[in-house]
Amino acid sequence: MKPFAMVLFISLINATAASGVTLTPAQHVGKQIFFDMNLSAQRNQSCATCHAPEAGWSGPDSTLNSHGGVYNGSFSDRFGNRRPPSASYVAQSPILKWDKKEKAFVGGAFWDGRATGMRLKSTAAEQAQGPFLNPLEHGFADASCVVSRICGAPYAADLEKLHPGICTITWPADQDKLCSTDGYKAALPPAERKKVDAAYDAIAHTIAAFELSPEVNPFSSKFDASLAGKAKLTKQEQLGLKLFNGKGKCSQCHPSSGKKPLFTDFTYDNLGIPRNPDNPFYTQKAVYNPDGTSWIDPGLGGFLAGEKTWASKSRTEFGKHKVPTLRNVDKRPSKDFIKAFGHNGYFKSLKEIVHFYNTRDSLPICKPGDKGEKITCWPLPETAMNMNMNEMGNLGLTDAEEDAIVVFMQALSDGYLPPPLQQSRRAPRVNR
Question: In 10 A of CB 383, how many CB atoms?
Fold first, then answer.
């Protein structure tokens, strides 16, 4: 077995261990694509590299998370500009639209909403296509490289059953080798290019099928068990839920009601998060980041500025980022594993980000690196434009109430197993 195939095989086993989930044929093929490290220029990166199940379908590298929170791509000297969000539950995001009633943009995928879902009628499918062709991520410059490598994979026969004739494409000589070359684009006749485009769309929908599967969306947290009457939240978790829905105002953007709440309203917001000075994007080559250390993340507004239909609204959306689901927000492979939070990975614990929600406007401003940063003071926001001033900033939560909200959100991690009958009466300790 080839090394990359062995990695894929092991990853697939780890992802489904003890899950008991039965996948449809499309979901099964989509899963194999999702975990295939061969689908990158240097054969070293899969979707799961940045969206690993053991880390709540988000970044699995504790060291990277503890600094920039941003991941490098297939070409190791290139980094993206935002931390990888969780891939769980987000495939249920609707097609991006301007909601007249809410006076807000709703739906889309990616932190900035650029995968609108309009072309493929699926935000998940359009999102799946993006990383493959991003020079800072999988590193291909041509969709033909994705298609040709999938058509040469062991699971290609299963894909053919779903989409007969999908791989009947005449490839250039040395196509596979050339796809490892930075910037390579295949010189295909129009008829073959049309086949590639159709195949690439079909592959995207196949990945989306897996991302919509019960393996990625199991609704198996302690919170779900409590809704089903199979578990009982602790007193601290109950208090956290009450605060989450009330004093903490969390549910205003992360709704908790319903039988299977997704804990996101799929809108966009600017929380006023400070810059993350460890973000490696600041030091990227000028071809990828011409602004250098002065770069400011425009979020949704940056995307809208290039769209004719919505360009007029771009200024009022500048600095806003997608409201993420809180499901699996604290899922991690070990207790000492560090996760990054916020679009730029500035926060390193749930306690930090809850404390920010609570005290952003009530604590003094300080410089990055100040001794009291994240505890008794906060640096200035990356951008103050369109900052949320109504639902956060001075909530008046006590330290114990912050802890309770954190503990409740920890109950949103999938894979919950009933504890022993005798439980400790001590409240969990929440680390900063």
Answer: 19
